[in-house]
Design goal:
By secondary structure, this protein is an alpha+beta fold. The protein is built from seven helices and 26 strands. The two termini are 48 Å apart. This is DUF3138 family protein.
């Protein structure tokens, strides 16, 4: 009977392995089975010892008073006492069990070694896909938005509607193990619509970020590669956002990605610092701008050799409140063109600037308050860029973003949430521009609603150089649904407006406002 029990236990080992989904699960299952078998062998050894002792006593008793041995009591398999009934095993059966345990121990050791030192050790692949449906009133469009391979960056077509993959490899175990992490967005990532080469041409690559992390001390870490900026409370990834679209500060005020090196320092549990020296934002190589030609017609160029320095500090006030801020100091390169007033070379969006670049200053503060099912975010920005405004003067912008979110659950719907957000971004000085605001030759961004008004430009005798830029605002209202841990569904209504007629409509006219209605399905893995 004991033989039947052990056979069932040994036979159950292989199905346990087949059901394990990962190496870790297999190791745990084998270890548990091995422990059970070892426990059973110890019990059997004790019973064998007792059996030998009992046989010796029986032989001695038989010399004095021979008697017939009583047969062992047979317990029915279906009886509740079957599990407590004694079992008898031969030495061959015990040896077979030992061999089985040795084989299982070998498998456990092999799987443990593969998990810790094999080629897949420390490798993780995560990500999401987020097909989106957008209705745009000004453009009179209504369609699905997914894998839209375009170099245009608009608030209604920014970083959503794509595949996001994060591939990370950690070399070793523990907090001092270095790692390499690459994120890929083949259609809406930084490499597609923001990163440019030394000539200012968009590189059209699938890289979104690529970061090497090397812990040097218990509190300090060296980082290098293509990294996002430190500004703002909002992140790029759709599955971590509480709205469908980004706020105005994320899209048009905060600096973008940088190629460089940095140092992360966390001296205590409340304070954390980040420092970085890099190229100017979005540049994968030092910028070169043509400023003329020589006698043979070859270009004369100037290069931006001044790096950008950026830093951030975060203070954890409590378990619910985090306060942070960042700043950037550097030099930005301007595109070259022909000045419409003089016919000579010019620089900047309107080609009215007389130099190919100038200083770039930016600072911001943000706060996040999270308590149970509530979350509040706030951010203020201020930036200046020399000669980057439409009329060739200094560009200036400042703004505010406020967000409130609450999670709750309905019996018939399940977990869900609601988010409200308000943004304002002032960009009026010298016709607007600078930072992440890209104006065309007429001083307008007709898709995103920035720059000078169409009426002012038409009535101007100096190509709009006396016109003011627009102040932009928006309100976004979102419903979020969480049917599973992997799935999110968002529905958003967004209303945008400006102080100038800068939104181009599908009929060719200009408007001061626009509306979006969108829904998004996110599956994370």
């Amino acid at each position: 009977m004991r033989k039947k029990l052990i056979c069932l236990l040994v036979a159950g080992a292989l199905p346990g392995l087949a059901m394990a989904d990962t190496t870790s699960d297999q190791i745990k299952a084998l270890q548990a089975q091995l422990n059970a078998l070892q426990k059973e062998v110890k019990s059997l050894k004790s019973e064998l010892a007792e059996s030998k002792s009992t046989k010796g006593t029986t032989k001695n008793a038989a010399i004095v008073a021979p008697a017939a041995a009583a047969p062992a009591q047979v317990v029915d398999v279906t009886s509740p006492d079957y599990g407590n009934a004694p079992a008898r095993l031969t030495n061959d059966q015990v040896d077979a069990m030992k061999q089985q345990m040795a084989n299982q121990q070998l498998k456990v050791d092999s799987l443990t070694d593969a998990a810790n030192t094999g080629p897949l050790a420390g490798l993780s692949i995560t990500g999401y896909i987020d097909p989106t449906y957008i209705y745009n009133r000004a453009q009179n469009t209504s369609s699905f938005l997914f894998a839209n391979h375009s170099t245009d960056y608009n608030y209604f077509n920014s970083t959503f509607g794509d595949l996001y993959l994060d591939i990370k490899k950690t070399f070793g175990v523990g907090p001092m193990a270095p790692s390499a992490e690459v994120s890929i967005m083949p259609n809406r990532g930084n490499g597609i619509n923001l990163l440019t080469n030394h000539k200012g041409e968009i590189g059209n690559n699938i890289l979104n970020t690529a970061i090497i992390t090397v812990p040097v001390t218990a509190t300090g870490t060296f980082v290098a590669g293509l990294m996002p900026s430190f500004g703002g409370y909002e992140v790029q990834q759709s599955n971590q956002m509480l709205t469908l679209t980004h706020n105005l500060l994320y899209d048009f005020s905060d600096p973008g990605s940088y190629v460089g090196v940095g140092w992360n320092w966390a001296p205590s549990g409340n304070w954390a610092y980040k420092f970085m020296i890099a190229n100017e934002q979005y540049r994968t190589y030092g910028a070169q701008t043509q400023v003329g030609t020589n006698a043979l017609g070859d270009p004369i160029t100037v290069s931006n050799r001044i790096p950008t320095f950026t830093a951030r500090v975060d203070y954890t006030w409590s378990s619910a409140l985090d306060i942070g801020g960042s700043f950037n100091i550097g030099r930005q390169t301007l595109a070259s063109g022909t000045n419409p007033l003089t016919g000579g070379p010019g620089f900047g969006p309107g080609s009215f600037a007389t130099s190919s670049g100038g200083y770039f200053l930016f600072g911001q503060m943000d706060a996040t308050y999270t308590l149970a099912d509530l979350q509040y975010n706030a951010q203020i920005d201020y930036g200046q860029q020399q000669r980057a405004a439409f009329n060739g003067g200094n560009a200036q912008w400042y703004g505010l973003s406020l967000l409130a979110h609450r999670k709750f659950s309905l019996p018939s719907v399940g977990p869900m949430g609601v988010t409200a957000r308000y943004d304002v971004l002032v960009n009026t000085k010298n016709g607007g521009g600078g930072g992440g605001i890209a104006l065309n030759g007429n001083g307008m961004d007709t898709s995103n609603g920035f720059g000078i008004g169409a009426d002012c430009f038409v009535n101007s005798s100096t190509f709009g150089t006396e016109c003011k830029g627009a102040t932009r605002q928006d309100v976004a209202l979102d419903l979020l649904f969480f049917p599973t841990q992997q799935i999110q569904v968002k529905v958003e209504y967004r209303h945008d407006w400006a102080t100038q007629k800068v939104f181009l409509r599908s009929d060719g006219s200009y408007s001061k406002n626009n509306d979006l209605l969108g829904t998004q399905f996110i599956y994370s893995f």
